[in-house]
């Protein structure tokens, strides 16, 4: 990859296990123009400022590529263009601006009540205990497949009201649709074609589920949205449900896996968390700074924006390299040190501004329950490999596997 | 001034005083630290007093959090009565004397009493400034008065009116001006809040003043307005402004009067001759200083945010050694108000603004950001239920960006510059 | 405990409401109201709220014994 730009190197899967030196290089120019006219923002002050700048739009999905002809006129001239137009008009709210964003997000927040989220703590604990019980007698585990993946996925299914037995089929859909976050993939023809197929399948699935929820209302978010949401038609409802399902998938998986990897790398904090569970909230915020589950998000400049001595021109794509801002020494002294006692930890692990992560409260509960339980119950844990193999995504960054050896599992207390 | 201080006295045990005490300790001051307060209460927070405390939500104890290792000596319930600059000594009401190496004056303000003494003394007539005031008024509101009359067109009046409506108590709000809240928000936004108040059932009277009160057996029964109308009411709250607590500085040679204690940009108190009073600083509502965001005009900013920011700067400067190491207090004024379910936030100074533009949302939706301009520059911004856009406008105000400051933004109507 | 929130800084991210729903609430879209004096039993929940606030607007300390280091 010699001759490639800094941001291309960041996207290169070969650098996935440790992008932080590249981020440090990136921060030498707080806002840096790439050859293709994209502007990468990598320092905390500039990120904090631009993340709540109203000239920055989230409505940045690329226009669909021209379709390859299938030869069936009804499909080519009617079904596909209409579906594409519907998809564009009813895109999920992470790709929208206010007032539409606020309206759709507001509907979700009305269902995502503190009481409902609080109720998930006990359920998360039960699921966690069960998953750890299954490790009894094993000497080797893959933390991702055996724990980090099934936990949040079961939680999000439960909360939304999606039958967990259907999960295997939309696991693949979720992974595919997450490519919409990757600037080097989202625009290409093949990815778009795959995403189209994939979105249609998941949309059909959700549509059936919505019908069921309307006939037989349950205690879940999808039931509430399907029956109570004002000003949200079925297309918006489907896009919103798909978003919640996909976003609930890989992000928390990464947070838990990154957390365990970090605690294994810094055993003093593993020990501290075992003996001081009160440490958990601080430790998780530091984890969100140190190894965030989402490394960057893409945006679009709606006007010329002067920042850090340069001007981001109107219509330029912008990349918020949040994970680089989290390691900015001007904001966080000794930024490469994992320090749960860090004061005033205003990290960007959940983003910020209007698009601050909807699922943040749930992710915090899951990470806290999971990490506290794992460090208490797993005995004699060692990594088989470090660094572990990573998933290809540069935005949703996390290990594909975290293979560990165990000496034992303590009884659930 | 270059000698490290060993004894620091803070007169005023409220938000500014306590903030300064924390800041002094955070900056490593390990000497004797004394806070003097005229009220018997430990430092407490005031903004909730006109809202949730009156309404009876949560605890009424708004004591401010104190660091467990603050190690300050609190002299509560004992007002400071005299300052001797030459002897570097504060005298208290109980006759004791406190010598200091550095002094912070943070005595704040008190509610302006109802001008007619006899009327002010009637049962059912209140002012609202302190914890005890809130306790008394809260008890009265819980007892469901037939009607509450509020006098004063400022934020406190509106917040108490909102609380009364939450409690389903009939309320009449008397505002002397033709438009409410105009001094802070300008007539357009002030008018909007007035509209909201009316919709929520407040009997809002503009251009209205009280001629006299009526009473039976020492209890308020009605008020008579200047236009002759009589309104029956058994509870009245006078929210007609504040008086600065500077009387104890009489004879001290400090430049203090009804407008406040004059300071320089480094929070150093000034003598009547214009010179710096060595070792004496001021912060919070009582202080009046040249504001860099208002072309150096002498202003006192009676807001929560200023009390905290100014106290922190004063604390830093008290320990700075000499003037070259001191920091200028350049806090951009900001405040919030919660009423009728809306959150109103303002940054900057609207005084003298000659232009207004709604830059997000709309007046009709009651969800908006409005920017204020003065001679072509952006000087302030107000948000109603749109707090997350405000930091961008705050940055524009700090930079004195051309007005209107941000164009081509999301959720932005076609920008129309109007009179404020 | 004693709690204070810098409501100039607060942007109604509502993370405190999830962390400590018995002690923080939104009235309307953005108006945060909170318990300034929650009991010691709420400590865990309040600490979670303090750390979860994206703008770090919440300050909380345990109750201090008014007798210690204070005179009247």
From TrEMBL, chain A:
Keyword annotations from UniProtKB, A to Z: Heme, Iron, Metal-binding, Monooxygenase, Oxidoreductase
Gene3D superfamilies: Cytochrome P450
CDD domains: CYP164-like
One Pfam family in the UniProt entry: p450
Names of required cofactors: heme
Domain of life: Bacteria
Similarity section: Belongs to the cytochrome P450 family.
Identification of the protein by name: Cytochrome P450
Species the sequence originates in: Methylobacterium radiotolerans
């Amino acid at each position: 990859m010699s001759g490639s730009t800094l941001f291309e190197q960041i996207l290169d899967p070969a650098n996935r296990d440790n992008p932080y030196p590249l981020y440090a290089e990136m921060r030498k120019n707080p806002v840096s123009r790439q050859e293709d006219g994209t502007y990468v923002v990598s320092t905390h002050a500039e990120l904090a400022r631009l993340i709540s700048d109203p000239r920055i739009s989230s409505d940045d999905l690329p226009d669909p590529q021209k379709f390859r002809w299938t030869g069936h006129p009804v499909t080519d001239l009617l079904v596909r263009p209409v579906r594409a137009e519907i998809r564009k008009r009813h895109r999920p709210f992470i790709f929208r601006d206010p007032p539409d964003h606020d309206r759709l997000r507001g509907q979700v927040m009305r269902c995502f009540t503190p009481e409902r989220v609080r109720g998930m703590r006990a359920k998360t604990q039960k699921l966690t205990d069960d998953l750890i019980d299954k490790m009894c007698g094993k000497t080797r585990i893959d933390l991702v497949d055996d724990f980090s993946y099934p936990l949040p996925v079961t939680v999000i299914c439960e909360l939304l009201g999606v039958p967990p037995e259907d999960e295997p089929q939309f696991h693949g859909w979720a992974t595919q649709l997450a490519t919409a976050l990757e600037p080097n993939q989202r625009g290409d023809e093949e990815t778009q074609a795959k995403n189209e197929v994939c979105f249609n399948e998941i949309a059909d699935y959700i549509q059936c589920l919505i019908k069921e929820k309307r006939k037989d209302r349950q205690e879940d978010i999808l039931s509430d949205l399907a029956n109570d949401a004002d000003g949200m038609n079925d297309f918006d409802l489907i896009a919103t449900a798909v978003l919640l399902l996909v976003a609930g998938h890989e992000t928390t998986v990464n947070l838990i896996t990154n957390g365990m990897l970090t605690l294994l790398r810094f055993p003093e904090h593993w020990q501290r968390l075992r003996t001081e569970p009160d440490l958990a909230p601080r430790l998780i915020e530091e984890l969100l700074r140190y190894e965030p589950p989402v490394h960057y998000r893409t945006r679009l400049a709606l006007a010329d924006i002067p920042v850090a001595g340069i001007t981001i021109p109107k219509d330029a794509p912008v990349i918020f390299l949040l994970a680089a801002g989290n390691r900015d020494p001007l904001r966080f002294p000794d930024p490469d040190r994992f320090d749960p006692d860090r004061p005033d930890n205003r990290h960007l692990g959940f983003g910020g501004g209007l698009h601050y992560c909807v699922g943040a409260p749930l992710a915090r509960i899951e990470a806290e329950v999971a990490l506290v339980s794992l460090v208490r119950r797993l005995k004699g844990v060692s990594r088989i490999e470090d660094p572990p193999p990573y998933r290809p995504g540069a935005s949703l960054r996390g290990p594909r596997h975290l293979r560990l050896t165990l000496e034992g599992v303590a009884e659930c207390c | 001034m270059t000698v490290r201080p060993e004894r620091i006295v803070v007169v005023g045990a409220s938000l500014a005083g306590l903030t300064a005490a924390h800041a002094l300790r955070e900056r490593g001051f390990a000497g004797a630290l004394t806070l003097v307060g005229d009220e018997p209460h430990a430092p407490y927070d005031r903004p909730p007093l006109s809202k949730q405390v009156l309404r009876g939500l949560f605890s009424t104890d708004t004591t401010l959090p104190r660091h467990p290792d603050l190690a300050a000596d609190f002299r509560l319930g004992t007002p400071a009565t005299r300052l001797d600059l030459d002897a570097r000594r504060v005298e208290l009401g109980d006759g004791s004397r406190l010598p200091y190496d550095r002094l912070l004056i943070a005595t704040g303000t008190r509610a302006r009493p109802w001008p007619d003494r006899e009327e002010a003394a009637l049962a059912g007539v209140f002012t609202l400034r302190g914890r005890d005031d809130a306790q008394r008024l809260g008890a009265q509101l819980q007892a469901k008065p037939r009607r509450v009359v509020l006098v004063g067109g400022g934020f406190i009046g509106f917040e108490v009116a909102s609380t009364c409506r939450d409690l389903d108590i009939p309320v009449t709000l008397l505002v002397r001006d033709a438009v409410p809240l105009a001094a802070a928000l300008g007539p357009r936004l002030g008018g909007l809040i007035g509209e909201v108040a009316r919709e929520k059932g407040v009997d809002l009277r503009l251009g209205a003043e009280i001629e006299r009160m009526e009473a039976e057996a020492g209890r308020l029964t009605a008020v008579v307005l200047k236009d002759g109308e009589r309104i029956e009411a058994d509870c009245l709250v006078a929210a007609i402004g504040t008086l600065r607590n500077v009387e104890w500085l009489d004879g001290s040679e400090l430049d203090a009067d009804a407008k406040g204690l004059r300071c320089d940009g480094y929070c150093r108190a000034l003598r009547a001759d214009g010179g710096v009073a060595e070792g004496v600083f001021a912060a919070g509502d009582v202080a009046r200083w040249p504001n860099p965001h208002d072309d150096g005009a002498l202003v006192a900013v009676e807001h929560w945010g200023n009390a905290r920011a100014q106290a922190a700067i004063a604390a830093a400067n008290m320990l700075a050694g000499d003037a070259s190491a001191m920091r200028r207090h350049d806090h951009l004024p900001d405040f919030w108000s919660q009423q009728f379910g809306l959150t109103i936030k303002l940054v900057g100074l609207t005084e003298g603004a000659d232009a207004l533009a709604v830059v997000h949302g709309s007046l009709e939706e009651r969800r908006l950001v409005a920017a204020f301009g003065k001679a072509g520059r952006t000087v302030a911004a107000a948000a109603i239920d749109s707090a997350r856009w405000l930091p961008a406008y705050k940055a524009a105000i700090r930079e004195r960006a051309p007005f209107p400051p941000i164009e081509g933004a999301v959720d932005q109507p076609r920008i129309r510059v109007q009179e404020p | 405990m004693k709690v204070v929130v810098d409501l100039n800084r607060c942007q109604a991210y509502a993370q405190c409401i999830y962390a400590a729903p018995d002690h923080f609430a939104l009235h309307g879209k953005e108006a945060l109201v909170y318990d300034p004096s929650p009991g010691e039993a709420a400590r865990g929940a309040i600490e979670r709220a303090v750390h979860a606030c994206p703008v770090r607007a919440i300050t909380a300390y345990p109750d201090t014994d008014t007798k210690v280091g204070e005179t009247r």
